[in-house]
From TrEMBL:
Residues 7-75 form the Winged helix-turn-helix transcription repressor HrcA DNA-binding domain. HAMAP family: HrcA. This is Heat-inducible transcription repressor HrcA. It comes from Arenimonas maotaiensis. Negative regulator of class I heat shock genes (grpE-dnaK-dnaJ and groELS operons). Prevents heat-shock induction of these operons. Residues 106-326 form the Heat-inducible transcription repressor HrcA C-terminal domain.
Length: 343
């Protein structure tokens, strides 16, 4: 894309801001007032024509005005947008609804709802992959056919039960010893880290320890394999898109709601952002998901004590108030991470 001179950048900024506010194509006479440029209407029209030639503006057939293209929104977000932090009253509103002490699932639901309520679009939060985070206590109960019930307690006191199919039977006494060993030596660690340490210890262990370490390793390995399946996510506010200009035709809405229902594709997009620093913005086809071609997805990872737990974000139209939604996403990620810190 060709570099734009300051006058063209100012005009493009004004056009995008006006289009986001009003939703209608922006004619040159309105743009001349909004941009504050002391130039003739003919000059405004020439600049708009040049912006159209380089793919930043489009002219709907029924209007003499112009609308920004996804490429224009990308330029706007990358180099024209000025983002201010949320007001303290808005931070307090978020803090009141995303507060520790209510359990992880409730926190995720509240974060998703607040993203939707404050942005007026769809709020989405991926569920943390629990076994990558620390556990507080673990117990095993032997079942039939080499199956074991695993009872996991996490630092926020959430309890999860999982049934594992082990490659070989383990006696109830060995299960109790393995649970005691894991609780004594590994409480406060994640199972990926536990596996690495168990393997290292097995190389140095005496023969009488082999059975105990093998049992612990079998179970932790099966837990990690079970966790490899795609995790779920929490969605709020899907119906808010039904009245949004550009997304309101039934065919487009059907595709969007099918994508929300399947979740897998959107979940994959969000999880791809887990290693990113700060906020990421996907405009239109940049998401790689056909149902989101007319949408923007704004994401940020949320973390606790330096460990990324998941990703949250907002899904809305490309014509969204970026200067407002971006700080909402960032602040929500920060507050959710703080609320999920172990007590």
């Amino acid at each position: 894309m060709l570099p734009l001179d300051p006058r063209a950048r100012r005009l493009l900024h004004a056009l995008i801001a006006q289009h986001i506010r009003e939703g209608a194509p922006v004619p040159s006479r309105v743009l001349a007032k909004q941009a504050g440029l002391e130039v003739s209407p003919a000059t405004i029209r020439n600049i708009m024509a040049n912006l159209e030639d380089v793919g930043l503006l489009a002219a709907p057939h029924t209007s003499a005005g112009r609308v920004p293209t996804p490429q224009a929104y990308r330029l706007f977000v990358d180099s024209l947008l000025e983002v201010a932090p949320l007001r303290e009253t808005e931070i307090e509103r978020l803090r009141e609804h995303i507060a520790p002490g209510v359990g992880t699932q409730t926190l995720l639901a509240q974060a998703s709802e607040m993203l939707s309520a404050m942005s007026q679009f769809v709020g989405v939060v991926t569920v943390p992959q629990r076994l990558q985070s620390a556990f507080k206590h673990i117990d095993f109960v032997a079942l039939d056919d080499n199956r074991v019930l695993v009872i996991l307690v996490f630092p926020d006191n959430e309890v999860q039960n999982r049934i594992l199919q082990l490659p070989r039977p383990i006696a109830p006494e060995a299960l109790m010893q393995a649970a005691n060993y894991l609780n004594r030596h590994f409480a406060g660690q994640g199972f990926a880290q536990i596996q690495r340490q168990l393997l290292a210890e097995m190389q140095q262990a005496k023969s009488e320890m082999d059975g105990l370490l093998n049992a612990a390793l079998d179970i932790s390995g099966q837990l990690m394999a079970a966790e490899a399946r795609p995790e779920d996510m929490v969605l709020s506010g899907q119906t808010r898109l039904m009245g949004v200009d550009g997304l309101s035709d039934m065919e487009r809405l059907r595709g969007l709601f099918e994508a929300f229902s399947r979740k897998r594709e959107i979940l994959g997009l969000l999880e791809s952002c887990a290693g990113a620093e700060g906020v990421r913005v996907f405009i239109g086809e940049e998401s790689g998901l056909a149902p989101l071609a007319g949408c923007t997805v704004i994401t940020a990872p949320y973390a606790s004590e330096g460990q990324v737990l998941g990703v949250l974000g907002v899904i809305g139209p490309t014509r969204m108030p970026y200067e407002r939604v971006i700080p909402i996403v960032k602040a929500t990620a920060d507050l959710l991470g703080d609320a999920l810190k172990p007590a």
